[in-house]
Amino acid sequence: MSEAVVTGSTFTSCEFGGVKANAAHFVRCAFLHCLFRRSGFFEATFEDCKLTGTTFLDCELQPLHVIGGDWSYVVLRGQNLAGLDLSGVRLREADLSEADFQRVNLRGADLGYARLQGANLRDADLRGANLEAVVLRGLDLTGVRLDLGQAVLVASAYGARVEP
Questions:
Q1: How many angstroms separate the CA atoms of 99 and 78, rounded?
Q2: Taking a C-beta distance cutoff of 8 angstroms, is the pair 43, 60 a contact?
Q3: What's the pLDDT at 48?
Q4: pLDDT at 62
Q5: pLDDT class for 129, splitting at 50, 70, 90?
Q6: What is 50-101 written as a DSSP string?
Q7: Are the C-beta atoms of residues 153 and 135 closer than 8 Å to each other?
Q8: What's the rounded Cα separation, in Å, for the pair 18 and 98?
Q9: What is the mean pLDDT of the chain?
Q10: In terms of C-beta density within 10 A (0-12 exposed, 13-18 middle, 19 or more buried), how is residue 128 classed?
Q11: What is the DSSP secondary structure assignment for residue 130, as one 8-state letter?
């Protein structure tokens, strides 16, 4: 699939093993409940794609370009996403545990109910991201950029009483 341009295609419950999708461009595609195992996405682009319920295991996602889209319920457990731009992406109820989000742009992303246990968020930008029901206590938030509302959520997670 290297350098392929795929537009408007739907893949449901497919298993992709050892796929090389380097420099591929997926536009308005849906990968629903799919599995990518030991696959490479060097310089690949997902533009306005839906990856609901898709799992990435031992994949190379550096550097990956994601422009919008719905990645709800995706499993990116333990994946290296450092430095990616995931701004505005819907990652609702995604399993992002143990993933490397160092320096990731998550501005305006929907992380509602996402699992982030053990994730590396150092220097990530979370401003404007939806953090509804995200367990913030115990996360290393060193250098993370937050907006004021999120700062209140973090303080509350550590037992602070925030009062006017």
A1: 4
A2: no
A3: 98
A4: 93
A5: very high
A6: B-TT-EEES-B-TT-EEES-B-TT-B-TT-B-TT-B-TT-B-TT-B-TT-B-
A7: no
A8: 22
A9: 97
A10: middle
A11: B
Q: Compute the distance between CA of residue 54 and CA of residue 52 in angstroms, rounded to an integer.
A: 6
Instruction: Please write the tens of the pLDDT for every residue from 86-114.
Output: 999 999 999 999 999 999 999 999 999 99
For residue 150, give the DSSP letter: H
Judge contact between 27 and 5, C-beta under 8 A: yes
Confidence of residue 164 (pLDDT cuts 50, 70, 90): confident
Residue 71 has pLDDT above 90, yes or no: yes
Residue 36 — very low, low, confident or very high, per pLDDT cuts 50/70/90? very high
CA distance 91 to 88: 9
Q: Spell out the residues 6+ positions from residue 142 whose beta carbon is closer than 8 angstroms to its own.
A: 122, 123
**d(Cα 144, Cα 76) in Å, to the nearest integer?**
20
**Rounded CA separation 24/43 (Å):** 7
Supply 62's token pair: 């550096």
* Adjacent-strand bridge partners of 60: 40
CA atoms lying within 13 Å on the CB side of residue 53: 9
Only one residue has tokens 């509602």, namely 112
- Six-digit token pair at 31? 């990968």
